[in-house]
């Protein structure tokens, strides 16, 4: 009902388009008075191309008529009397129109609802970019559905023509047999006496001439029918190929691209149900036309008539076979990709699906799918149709799986649940290439027949590139290879070529997408964050984002060459930040408590204008996966002078002992989170609740299993200089990190360490 309420608010051309949907075939009054009932029915659950669905459509028609009759009976008063007559008339009219073809009623209502929704969406979102995108998508879907409707009508037309041709040919053969009978009678006259022959011959000759003249005319007519039918099939196949190109080369390729970007943290690629329904309609239409062409060929063989039809039919048969071969081989796809960073001796899964398997009854003899790991060079040879002699680059356990048909969803798929890469055979590496830059792929292949073994297909599909590792320490470099490949691979490329350099803004999109996905946050990287990363990547000091828009970053800069003065690459540093944030800092990042991407000088400039005790959190420049606290305070060595102090970085190891919030709570000289938020206001909800009395001003509470102890701080704010190095950094190698020290103490026997301290 909601759609109808909105549809009544349409104006101008949109209102005119909506009104034009209605007429004697479906009165607008029926739409108005039964709006709630109409919009609550599952019209899309009925497959219009499946005659077996007719009983569902008939049930809906009967329910619609019953609803109308009920509505009519409840009308009272003078106006109600007229409406009662009108609704009763519409009930009879709809029953008369659709009783023998209830699927047409479903088609009509689906079209009305679809168009109304589109018109409402256009009117609502005409000024919205998202609305415009949705409108563009709905227009594309409408064009595809319209093309299918045109194909349905063309196929029905050629079916009618084929039946007419068959009927005429059968009659022609009967008349031809009659001609043969007359010929035999004329031949038998030779045995008769001359008088009898002269008496009967003229009539037979006249009949013979009449029949032969008819046969000559009818043979020309049949030839014309055959040529006309072949031309109609040519038109149908042209439209079929065009429709198939849109679905396979546009929609399916876009789905695969979304699947690839989802590997980098992009939005999910979406389901395959719509694509499968389109592919199944293609398969059904192709098969119907193929059967028609075969029947036309059979009629030609049954009654050969000289002419070009034989060549035309051969061409049509070749074309339709090529079309269905393309459809079948292109719709053998990987629904769930194997992991792109693949560790040996580790279980992994993948799912392969044949989108037209159910429609072509492939499941009647379920095919087996085999998975093999092959190298980049072997993948290139495979796509060139070169003989690879069943080569592989490793051994996968549990690599065979039978495709299963799921009746409820109509899907035919193979679920590899327990594969494991037992061993890998690496190729010779090129130049500076490391093992984590070498790409492999999982080849899935199968063979099956359709149409009572009329056509046999060998289908193959390649997974997205995978990088094989043998140790977890290789994971971050392997992830970099996968990230670059997923982001910058061109459609239809030679496996697995990617550009060696890309524009910085392109890379920014990629790492921002990856960051948000890994940290599971809507808070992505700001323009200031990206400028900081550009400064790090290019060793630049410019704060102007425009200075980096035309700059390019090479793969070597990304993850082969170390950053200046460091022993790690740009990606390794960034990956460390993501891992730390994902595991320990996610709520604080989402709260905006972590500025993160700020260098030491920027932190100093920001803090020096703030009151003492103001602090900020920034990712360490010098250590992978580290975060440091910078704060402003008095310089104990020079009265009246203030300076910015930087704590030595905390890492995952530290946060597994004590959380960031608790560590900030422990440090009493930290008062305000930059710019001016009291620290308890920001972090108190993350503090670990104390299990004992509140410690005194100079103590910190640590908890270990059932023991709780108070540890007197040996360093007060007045002796802060003993904790700091000459640059204002805490030197934990020469002084003491309280948490680490306590952790070490807690490893010793409880009785000897905490005698008299246990609470």
TrEMBL record:
CC terms in the record's Gene Ontology section: cytosol; nucleus
CDD domains assigned: STAT5_CCD (cd16855), STAT5_DBD (cd16849)
Gene Ontology biological process terms from the UniProt entry: cell surface receptor signaling pathway
Superkingdom per UniProt: Eukaryota
Subcellular location, principal: cytoplasm
Similarity annotation: Belongs to the transcription factor STAT family.
Organism: Pundamilia nyererei
Keywords carried by this UniProt record: Activator, Coiled coil, Cytoplasm, DNA-binding, Nucleus, Phosphoprotein, SH2 domain, Transcription, Transcription regulation
Name of the protein in its database record: Signal transducer and activator of transcription
Transferase as UniProt keyword: no
SMART domains: SH2, STAT_int
PROSITE patterns: SH2 (PS50001)
One function term, GO molecular function aspect: DNA binding
């Amino acid at each position: 009902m909601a759609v109808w309420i909105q549809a009544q608010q349409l104006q101008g051309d949109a209102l005119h388009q909506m009104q034009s949907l209605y007429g004697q075939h479906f009165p607008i009054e029926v739409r108005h008075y039964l709006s709630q009932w109409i919009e609550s029915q599952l019209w899309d659950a009925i497959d219009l191309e499946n005659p077996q669905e007719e009983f569902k459509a008939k049930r809906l028609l009967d329910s619609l008529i019953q609803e109308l009759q009920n509505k009519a009976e409840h009308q009272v008063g003078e106006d109600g009397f007229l409406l009662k007559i009108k609704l009763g008339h519409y009930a009879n009219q709809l029953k008369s129109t659709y009783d023998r073809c209830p699927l047409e009623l479903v088609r009509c209502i689906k079209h009305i609802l679809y168009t109304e929704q589109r018109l409402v969406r256009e009117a609502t979102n005409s000024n919205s970019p998202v609305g415009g995108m949705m409108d563009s998508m709905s227009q594309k879907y409408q064009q595809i559905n319209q093309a299918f409707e045109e194909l349905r009508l063309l196929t029905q037309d050629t079916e009618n023509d084929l039946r007419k041709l068959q009927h005429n040919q059968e009659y022609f053969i009967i008349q031809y047999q009659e001609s043969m009978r007359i010929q035999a009678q004329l031949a038998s006259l030779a045995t008769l006496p001359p008088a009898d022959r002269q008496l009967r011959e003229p009539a037979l000759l006249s009949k013979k001439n009449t029949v032969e003249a008819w046969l000559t005319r009818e043979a020309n007519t049949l030839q014309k029918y055959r040529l006309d039918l072949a031309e109609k099939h040519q038109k149908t196949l042209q439209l079929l190929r065009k429709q198939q190109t849109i679905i396979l080369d546009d929609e399916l390729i876009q789905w695969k691209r979304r699947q690839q970007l989802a590997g980098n943290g992009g939005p999910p690629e979406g389901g395959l149900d719509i694509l499968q329904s389109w592919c199944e309609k293609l398969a059904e239409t192709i098969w119907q036309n193929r059967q028609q062409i075969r029947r036309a060929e059979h009629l030609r063989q049954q009654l050969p008539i000289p002419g070009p039809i034989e060549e035309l039919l051969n061409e049509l048969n070749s074309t339709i076979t090529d079309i269905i071969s393309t459809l079948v081989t292109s719709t053998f796809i990987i629904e769930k990709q194997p992991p792109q960073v693949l560790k040996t001796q580790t279980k992994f899964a993948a799912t392969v699906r044949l989108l037209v398997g159910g429609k072509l009854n492939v499941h009647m003899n379920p095919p087996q799918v085999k998975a093999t790991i092959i190298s980049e060079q072997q993948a290139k040879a495979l796509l060139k149709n070169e003989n690879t002699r069943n080569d592989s680059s490793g051994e996968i356990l549990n690599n065979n799986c039978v495709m299963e048909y799921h009746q409820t969803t109509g899907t035919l798929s193979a679920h590899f649940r327990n594969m494991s890469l037992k061993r890998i055979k690496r190729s010779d590496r090129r130049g500076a290439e490391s093992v984590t830059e070498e790409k492999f792929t999982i080849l899935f292949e199968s063979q099956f027949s359709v149409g009572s073994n009329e056509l046999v297909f060998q289908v193959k599909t390649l997974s997205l590139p995978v990088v094989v590792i043998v140790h977890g320490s290789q994971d971050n470099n392997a992830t970099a290879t996968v990230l670059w490949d997923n982001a910058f691979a061109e459609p239809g490329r030679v496996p697995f070529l990617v550009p060696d350099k890309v524009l910085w803004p392109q890379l920014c999109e990629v790492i921002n997408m990856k960051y948000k996905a890994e940290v599971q946050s809507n808070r992505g990287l700001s323009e200031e964050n990206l400028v900081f990363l550009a400064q790090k990547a290019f060793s630049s000091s410019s704060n102007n984002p425009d200075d980096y828009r035309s700059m390019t970053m090479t793969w070597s800069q990304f993850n082969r060459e170390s950053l200046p003065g460091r022993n790690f690459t740009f990606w390794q540093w960034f990956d460390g930040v993501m891992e730390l944030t994902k595991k320990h800092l996610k709520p604080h990042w989402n709260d905006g408590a972590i500025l993160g991407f700020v260098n030491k000088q920027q932190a100093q400039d920001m803090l020096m204008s703030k009151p003492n005790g103001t602090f900020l959190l920034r990712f360490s420049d010098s250590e992978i996966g580290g975060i440091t606290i910078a704060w402003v305070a008095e310089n104990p060595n020079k009265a009246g002078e203030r300076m910015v102090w930087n704590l030595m970085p905390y890492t995952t190891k530290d946060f597994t002992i004590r959380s960031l919030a608790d560590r900030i709570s422990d440090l009493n000289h930290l008062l305000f989170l930059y710019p001016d938020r009291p620290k308890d206001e920001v972090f108190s909800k993350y503090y670990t609740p104390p299990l004992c009395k509140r410690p005194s001003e100079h103590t910190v509470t640590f908890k270990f299993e059932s023991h709780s102890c108070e540890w007197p701080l040996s360093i007060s704010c007045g002796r802060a200089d003993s904790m700091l190095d000459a640059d204002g950094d805490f030197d934990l190698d020469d002084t003491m990190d309280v948490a680490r020290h306590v952790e070490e103490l807690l490893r010793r026997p409880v009785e000897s360490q905490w005698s008299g301290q246990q609470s």
